[in-house]
Design goal:
- This protein is mainly α and 180 residues long.
- The protein folds into two domains: 4-97, Rna Polymerase Sigma Factor, Chain: A, CATH 1.10.1740.10; 114-170, Winged helix-like DNA-binding domain superfamily/Winged helix DNA-binding domain (Arc Repressor Mutant, subunit A).
- Helix content is 69%, strand content 0%.
- It contains eight helices and no strands.
- Helix 1 (4-12) crosses helix 2, helix 2 (16-38) crosses helix 3 (41-57) and helix 3 (41-57) crosses helix 4.
- The longest helix is centred in the middle third of the chain and has 28 residues, at 70-97.
Length: 180
């Protein structure tokens, strides 16, 4: 049976399979330790990955106990888990200090009963109404999106509004409350 120390020396000499043997031999113990420290599988996996990365990064300074790298890996995993908790705590505290986001109304909010009426408009007017009334685009932006002159958008939007008012009035829609 090969030891971590022998495989580590081979890995330092360029044998990638030797590093893989060290990883396979020690990863489960490091993962169990990390899981006990973090309580979350995803965090434990991160700790394992960072621990082995740190082992390779400090490859000239790792310490072996009876030809085993496991004690060094477990100690490193403890430090990595501590750093992960500290980073998570800082992130949570930062989020708590941020002001609450101001809810902006969705484009087209308040159109409620008008949406089915928009769907019944002729295609050219429906396209303009969808862009300007529902999505909140300006007439100029709608003209660019549709590839038509701004004046055409303006006239189609005017016709669409007129048809919508007629449709909604005939359906008993009340303007002041937005309900039938």
């Amino acid at each position: 049976m090969t030891s971590d120390a022998r495989d580590w020396a081979a890995a330092l000499a360029g044998d990638g399979r030797a590093f893989a043997r060290v990883f396979r031999r020690d990863r489960d113990r490091v993962r169990r330790h990390a899981l006990a420290l973090t309580g979350a599988v995803a965090d434990a996996e991160d700790v394992v990955a960072v621990t082995f990365f740190e082992a390779w990064r400090h490859r000239d300074r790792v310490r072996f106990v009876d030809d085993s790298l496991e004690p060094w890996l477990v100690a490193t995993a403890t430090n990595v888990a501590r750093n992960l908790r500290r980073s998570s705590r800082r992130y949570t505290e930062l989020l708590a200090r941020l002001p609450e986001p101001v809810a902006e109304p969705e484009p087209g909010a308040g159109l409620g009963g008008a949406l089915p009426a928009i769907a019944r408009l002729p295609l050219a007017e429906r396209q303009v109404a969808a862009l300007c009334l529902v999505a909140g685009y300006s007439e100029r932006e709608a003209a660019i999106a549709l590839g038509i002159p701004p004046g055409t958008v303006k006239s189609r939007l005017s016709r669409a509004r007129r048809r919508l008012q007629e449709q909604l009035r005939s359906e008993g829609f009340r303007e002041e409350t937005g309900h039938a």
